[in-house]
Amino acid sequence: MVRLTFISFLSLLLSSSAIHAQTTIDACNLFDVTENAAWPFVFTAVESDDSSSSAEQVFEIVVDELPSDGASVRVAKTVANGNWFFGEPIPLELGSNVITVTAVSFPRTVKFQFSSGEVAFSSLFLNYLDVNTCVASTGGVAVASCSAFEPGPNDTWTHVLTAVTSDDPSSGEEQTLEIEVSALPAGGAEYRVAKTVANGNWFFGNPIELSLGLNTVSVSAVAFQRTVKFQFSSGEVEFTALAINGEAVECDANETLGCTDAEAENYDEAATADDGSCTYHPSYYCGTGTYWDETAGKCTAESSCTGDIDQDGMVAVSDLLVFLAAFGNACE
Q: Which of 29, 106, 112, 113 could pair with 39 in a Cys bridge, judged by C-beta atoms 3.0 to 4.6 Å apart?
């Protein structure tokens, strides 16, 4: 059981910004994911709409580990006519790697592309300023493994955390979610607010991209009773702290959701908590004195007539034929 107290939650938030633990490019929110297989991760130094974009750009990354086949970085920048220029690949080395892009007399965009997300680093500097706001994964709890989250309504929003329901007298008050994210799936993840409005209908907020570190969203107070939930797009999001309205949320990280009813068709022996997914053969619903008739596709009343072997409601030749067909067979 993971129990995060309010004091420990605050301590974590106060200390996390001062710690630069080792992390990897694919786990750092400062790097954008691209569709270019050769250069799948990009760090943006400056955009052309920045007044200082023409100034010299100095990028430094302190590499702690490299993938077995190595990794490279290259400069991607726009030139005077707006076209893109791509520099030669530069093999990354353990330790400090510094790349300088000289100043120009026009606005431009400067980015640094990386060939692998498996590069582990502990420091990141841009123009001699420490920009490493990444938070390394510390073995946090995955959303999918936390009992506080329920299965989501669809494949887009797979997990839901309920802040308050309309039958709670305080449901009209402001609701604030704080989640300290320690790891994100490769493609990132989002969350959004789902709440009921005055007429009882549902309102869904715009998706908000989750980032490593503290993520906070507040739902303003209203004058009516309402339900407020937070929907997440992935169960692979890991977190080290979770709080609603300043109170830590209890999370059983060892809980496995699934069907726990042994009579169900999809019974899961490994499940420790039922998630409402159990399915049953139709015969499960046949009441006392009835049986499931596969041919008729329905529950049929059992006959009280002793000789009615085929259960058709009368003793006839068909019952004798059933008996003769089975006559002489050894009973197991």
A: 113
Q: Residue 89 has what DSSP assignment?
A: P
Hey, which residues does 193 pair with through a beta bridge? 230
> CA 200, CA 222: separation in Å to the nearest integer?
13
What is the architecture of the domain spanning 141-248?
A: Sandwich (2.60)
Residues of the chain with pLDDT under 50: 1-20, 136-137
CA distance 253 to 143: 9
Which pLDDT belongs to residue 310? 67
Tell me how far apart the alpha carbons of residues 89 and 187 are, in angstroms, rounded to a whole number.
24
Does residue 258 come out as left (phi exceeding 0), alpha (psi in the -120 to 50 range) or beta? left
Fold of the domain spanning 22-130: Jelly Rolls (2.60.120)
d(CA 179, CA 167): 25
- Domain ranges, ordered by start, for the chain: 22-130, 141-248, 282-326
* Residue 311 DSSP label: -
Strand partners, 41: 33, 114
Tell me what pLDDT residue 44 has: 95
Residue 251 DSSP label: B
The pTM assigned to this predicted structure is: 0.43
State how far the Cα of 123 lies from the Cα of 134, in Å rounded to an integer.
9
